[in-house]
């Protein structure tokens, strides 16, 4: 048999086998096709293989190589057809594949728990119509005290309770150090933002302000000289303490849970009258979360509002306290440590 | 404020159990801090807010209990015999410092026998933590804890020339106080002196020379009013805070001064004998009634949201010591007529009651805040998120996706941290007078040093290479000589980040976040020299189309990194968050997608070493037309043998695509030709084929 005939027979065989395998519509017909082409006894490939003996010795090498190629191709075509009928499983996957090995995780960073808390608070208050307002952290005494009805002889202005700034650029020290107060200080409360908002807008006003405040407390598990407050302010023609209590109750139910109760205790803040401490009953204990009250008429007068025409309420809640309660954080200092072992838990 | 149940029961019947009582007090303004039993006495610790100086004595607390439980207060009757000897023959008082001492009163008692005070008084004082001294001093303390008015007893024999002078301290003057320490007096200190020298620091502490001892027989009893600010400043300056200064800082009852003086005379003569000289020296005139305040009942519901009936209002205000009267208000149409208003003269001990709002609070707290409903919603109003918050939320998304975690670090830093690096300004940082933490006084001018410190702390504690960011204010000091509001720092939000040693990874994060914020202009860099950054490794960041500096990015100086005991290198960046927000386009606009195939062409140019990618890409972009849809840098390599010194090969790919037609190969060729020609001409480039 000439090499030419042998090769064309092989080509024919390959194309017949491939079309037969790919045309098989189920495993029975595929098996029939397999017997026809690859059957060990009377398969067509076996027949062609036998013809190799009749090839001229000089052509045998080329013929053998082609024979192998065709054999592989037919086998592949059979396997492919078989897999296709079986739904693609099987030998595509290495038998040593262990799907229970851990996944390869992308390295993701973490958002600080205080930011998460602030976002959450902003979202809850946003649903009640409060928008975010901001002001500077370095304030003048007028915004931090005077406009908030805190007169000069008030203990809240004591230098020991505030971070007054040293007067800059004066040779030979700080001329105001003797009297204690300075021209600027790190704000001790976010209530300063109330003043800035009321100076620049007319009622109705509904804002919250979240930000850093500063008081010289010695750091321990529950105190840090820098912390965050959420200040709320609502000013309109008709606003009552019942509205204040309702807003704070709705807030507490949203943030801490449906079963949380709220209670007011009388207190004293120069910028509200009446003034109250706000307690939430949580897990059977009354916990103080902040202060609140009706905006003092003197504050309205300081910003040029007529206290006979408008009313308002204000509240300030400690963000850390809310965040720590919610996440079970026991030491406030962890929040400001920058320790990744802490941060990556949130 | 510590009170004992038995002491309170001298003025009011305690009809409630302990737990009920402290609960009612907490919910009406005297917060219960704790209770304990000392020597059989139940001692209750109450928090008194700074406006309620009247509750810094047992009578004040008893008055609160009385109004809560519907009882009248039982005040002791003061009676003592006066001797015919007139006080004016025994003592002279001159007040030369009325700014600090509006009223000074004195009485004289002669012939007392100083000794121990009786058992009941010692027990009462000890149970609330007051040390027992002798029967005279104990009485002054007892009366102070009874009514809140501090008193002082001088040994009359030690008062030179029988003259008391209230005056400012003199230059260089010193006083040995009863604690036997010497205190400097200044012209701001209010001093009680005799004709020769200082005897006491007014309202703060008495002096050793005139204190009452076993040998004392004649007394001067001081009852005065010292102004809060004067006492507070002196107490603070001398670091000498006493029960007396605490009370003066919260203001005393002007009418209570004489009551306390007489009460002390009564108790001293009962306990230690002696006779009280007739009359009193009082440096000020009679005490007028307080101005009446009109309370419109309609205001109660306007402020509180509940109605409280007139009888309850009247009962509460009268119980608190006000003279409240419906009848005396004149008919006034604007207030709705007399029947709806109440005229109220507050008692002299309630300095905090001056306005209608103050009376509303009194009624509310006694009536009970639990009466105020919590189902009174506010009207619906829309609110929207600030662009700043939306932008920062996206920014956090990019940075956390890039593997950075958010830190929060203190705004006030140490000199070491502040000095590490300050790319934004050379002006010295503003400082606080009081240190915040570990000597931190400086308001930070950059976030990077704080993040470097955090990275170092993470490495030191757990060998973590912390990749961190922070969004916080920095405080850029104002120019010298500015005053008023201009003297406040420029305070803006910055975004700081610190990462490992891959400059381009960090730059990529910044490029990515610009894209995510819809800032489409090219990020431009200019090499700058900044302390704390590696020389040549720092760049100022700008965005095409804006002239302001967006921020700084760079490799930190090796020396700085090593000073924090950190291995390897660090890359840090700081951006102005406010500029990011100002430039952001948070609402993406759809761009047309071409339905025609694109053609990619790779080019390999040999360039002078000095040609940076930004100038190369600029030339390419201006030489190509709008059909250059993407230009991507591939790599740079150098082969001096083939290309000569100071030459480099830069590989890049161009994606070419038209919105309107299928580009042919020759279209692409002509664009490439234009690019190559421009690069040859402007950059001395040679195309490698």
TrEMBL record, chain A:
Alphabetically list the UniProt keywords: Aminoacyl-tRNA synthetase, ATP-binding, Cytoplasm, Ligase, Magnesium, Metal-binding, Nucleotide-binding, Protein biosynthesis
Q: Does the keyword Cytoplasm apply?
A: yes
What is its quaternary makeup? Tetramer of two alpha and two beta subunits.
* UniProt cofactor note: Binds 2 magnesium ions per tetramer.
Give the EC number(s) under which this enzyme is classified: 6.1.1.20
Which coenzymes or cofactors are required? Mg(2+)
Query: Which Gene3D superfamilies did the record assign?
Result: Bira Bifunctional Protein, Domain 2
What's this protein's name?
Phenylalanine--tRNA ligase alpha subunit
UniProtKB/TrEMBL annotation, chain B:
Keyword set includes Nucleotide-binding: yes
Q: Where does Mg(2+) bind?
A: 352, 358, 361-362
Which parts of the sequence belong to the FDX-ACB domain? 594-689
List where in the cell it is found: Cytoplasm
Q: What is its main location?
A: cytoplasm
- Cofactor(s) the protein requires to work: Mg(2+)
Enumerate the UniProt keywords alphabetically.
Aminoacyl-tRNA synthetase, ATP-binding, Cytoplasm, Ligase, Magnesium, Metal-binding, Nucleotide-binding, Protein biosynthesis
Family matches, as InterPro entries: aa-tRNA-synth_II/BPL/LPL, B3/B4_tRNA-bd, DNA-bd_dom_put_sf, Fdx_antiC-bd, Fdx_antiC-bd_sf, Phe-tRNA-ligase_IIc_bsu, Phe-tRNA-ligase_IIc_bsu_bact, Phe-tRNA_synthase-like_B3/B4
GO terms, molecular function: phenylalanine-tRNA ligase activity
Query: Which stretch is the leader sequence?
Result: none
The record places domain B5 at 288-374
Q: Which Pfam families match?
A: B3_4, B5, FDX-ACB, tRNA_synthFbeta
Cofactor info, note text: Binds 2 magnesium ions per tetramer.
Q: Which reaction does it catalyse?
A: tRNA(Phe) + L-phenylalanine + ATP = L-phenylalanyl-tRNA(Phe) + AMP + diphosphate + H(+)
- Quaternary structure note: Tetramer of two alpha and two beta subunits.
UniProt xrefs under HAMAP family: Phe_tRNA_synth_beta1
UniProt lists the family membership as follows: Belongs to the phenylalanyl-tRNA synthetase beta subunit family. Type 1 subfamily.
- Could you identify this protein by its name? Phenylalanine--tRNA ligase beta subunit
What gene does the UniProt entry assign to this protein? pheT
């Amino acid at each position: 048999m000439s090499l030419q005939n042998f090769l064309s027979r092989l080509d024919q065989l390959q194309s017949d086998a491939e079309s037969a395998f790919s045309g098989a519509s189920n495993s029975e017909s595929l098996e029939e096709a397999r017997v026809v082409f690859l059957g060990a006894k009377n398969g067509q490939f076996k027949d062609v293989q036998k013809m190799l003996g009749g090839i001229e010795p000089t052509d045998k090498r080329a013929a053998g190589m082609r024979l192998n190629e065709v054999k592989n191709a037919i086998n592949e075509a059979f396997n492919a057809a078989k897999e296709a009928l079986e739904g693609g499983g099987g030998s595509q996957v290495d038998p040593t594949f262990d799907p229970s090995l851990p996944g390869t995780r992308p390295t993701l960073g973490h958002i600080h728990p205080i930011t998460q808390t602030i976002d959450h608070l902003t979202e809850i208050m946003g649903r009640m119509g409060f928008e975010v307002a901001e002001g500077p952290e370095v304030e003048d005494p007028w915004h931090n005290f005077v406009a908030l009805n805190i007169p000069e002889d008030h203990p809240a202005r004591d230098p020991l309770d505030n971070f007054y700034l040293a007067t800059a650029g004066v040779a030979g020290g700080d001329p105001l150090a003797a009297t204690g107060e300075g021209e600027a200080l790190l704000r001790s409360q976010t209530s300063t933002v109330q003043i800035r908002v009321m100076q620049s807008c007319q009622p109705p006003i509904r804002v919250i302000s979240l930000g850093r405040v500063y008081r010289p407390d010695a750091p321990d598990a529950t105190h840090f000289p820098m912390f965050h407050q959420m200040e709320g302010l609502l000013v309109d023609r008709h606003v009552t303490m019942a509205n204040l209590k309702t807003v704070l109750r709705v807030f507490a139910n949203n943030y801490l849970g449906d079963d949380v109760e709220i209670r007011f205790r009388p207190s004293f803040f120069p910028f509200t009258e009446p003034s109250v401490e706000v307690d939430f009953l949580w897990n059977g204990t009354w916990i103080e979360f902040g202060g609140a009250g009706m905006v003092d008429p003197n504050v309205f007068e300081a910003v040029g509002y007529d206290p006979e025409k408008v009313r308002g309420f204000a509240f300030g809640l400690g963000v850390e306290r809310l965040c720590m309660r919610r996440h079970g954080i026991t030491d406030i200092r962890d929040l400001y440590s920058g320790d990744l072992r802490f941060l990556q838990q949130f | 404020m510590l009170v004992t149940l038995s002491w309170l029961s001298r003025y009011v019947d305690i009809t409630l159990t302990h737990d009920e009582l402290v609960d009612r007090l907490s919910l009406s303004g005297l917060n219960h801090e704790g209770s304990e039993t000392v020597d059989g006495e139940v001692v209750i610790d109450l928090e008194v807010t700074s406006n309620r100086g009247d509750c810094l004595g047992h009578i004040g607390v008893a008055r609160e209990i009385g109004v809560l439980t519907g009882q009248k207060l039982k005040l002791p009757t003061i009676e003592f015999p006066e001797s015919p000897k007139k006080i004016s023959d025994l003592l002279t008082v001159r007040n030369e410092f009325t700014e600090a001492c509006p009223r000074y009163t004195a009485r004289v008692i002669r012939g007392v026998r100083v000794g121990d005070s009786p058992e009941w008084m010692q027990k009462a004082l000890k149970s609330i933590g007051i040390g027992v001294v002798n029967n005279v001093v104990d009485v002054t303390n007892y009366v102070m804890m009874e009514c809140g008015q501090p008193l002082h007893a001088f040994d009359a024999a030690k008062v030179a020339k029988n003259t008391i002078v209230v005056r400012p301290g003199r230059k260089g003057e010193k006083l040995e106080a009863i604690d036997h320490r010497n205190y400097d007096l200044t012209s701001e200190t209010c001093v009680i002196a005799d004709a020769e020298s200082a005897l006491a620091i007014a309202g703060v502490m008495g002096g050793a020379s005139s204190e009452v001892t076993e040998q004392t027989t004649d007394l001067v009893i001081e009852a005065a009013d010292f102004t809060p600010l004067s006492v507070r400043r002196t107490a603070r300056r001398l670091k000498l805070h006493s029960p007396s200064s605490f009370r003066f800082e919260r203001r005393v009852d002007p009418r209570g001064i004489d009551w306390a003086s007489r009460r002390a005379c009564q108790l001293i003569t009962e306990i230690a004998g002696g006779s009280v000289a007739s009359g009193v020296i009082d440096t000020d005139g009679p005490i007028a009634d307080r101005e009446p305040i009109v309370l419109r009942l309609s205001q109660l519901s306007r402020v509180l949201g509940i109605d409280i009936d007139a009888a309850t209002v009247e009962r509460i205000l009268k119980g608190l010591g006000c003279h409240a009267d419906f009848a005396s208000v004149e008919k006034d149409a604007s207030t709705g007529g007399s029947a709806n208003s109440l005229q109220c003269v507050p008692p002299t001990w309630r300095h905090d009651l001056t306005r209608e709002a103050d009376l509303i609070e009194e009624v509310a707290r006694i009536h009970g805040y639990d009466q105020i409903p919590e189902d009174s919603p506010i009207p619906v109003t829309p609110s929207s998120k600030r662009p700043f918050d939306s932008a920062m939320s996206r920014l956090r998304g990019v940075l956390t996706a890039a593997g950075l975690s958010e830190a929060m670090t203190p705004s006030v830093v140490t000199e070491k941290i502040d000095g590490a690096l300050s790319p934004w300004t050379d002006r010295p940082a503003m400082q606080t007078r009081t240190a915040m933490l570990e000597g931190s006084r400086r308001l930070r001018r950059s976030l990077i040093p704080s993040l470097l410190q955090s990275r170092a702390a993470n490495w030191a504690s757990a060998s973590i290479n912390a990749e961190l960011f922070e969004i916080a204010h920095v405080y850029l000091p104002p120019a010298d000589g500015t005053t008023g509001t201009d003297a406040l720092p420029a305070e803006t939000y910055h975004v700081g980040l610190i990462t490992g040693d891959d400059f381009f990874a960090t730059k990529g994060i910044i490029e990515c976040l610009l894209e995510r914020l819809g800032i489409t202009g090219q990020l431009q860099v200019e090499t700058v020299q900044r302390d704390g950054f590696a020389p040549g490794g720092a760049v100022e960041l700008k965005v095409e189309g804006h002239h302001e500096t967006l921020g700084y990015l760079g490799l930190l100086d090796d020396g700085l990194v090593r000073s924090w005991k950190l291995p390897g290198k660090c890359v840090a960046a700081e951006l102005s968050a406010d500029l990011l927000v100002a430039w952001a386009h948070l609402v993406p606009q759809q761009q047309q997608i071409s339905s025609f195939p694109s053609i990619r062409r790779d080019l390999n140019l040999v360039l002078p070493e000095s040609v940076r990618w930004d100038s190369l890409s600029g030339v390419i972009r201006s030489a190509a037309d709008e059909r250059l849809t993407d230009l991507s840098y591939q790599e740079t390599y150098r082969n001096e043998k083939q290309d000569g010194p100071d030459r480099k090969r830069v590989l890049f790919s161009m994606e070419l695509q038209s919105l309107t037609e299928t580009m042919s190969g020759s279209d692409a060729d002509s664009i490439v030709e234009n690019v190559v020609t421009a690069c040859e001409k402007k950059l001395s480039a040679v195309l490698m084929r």
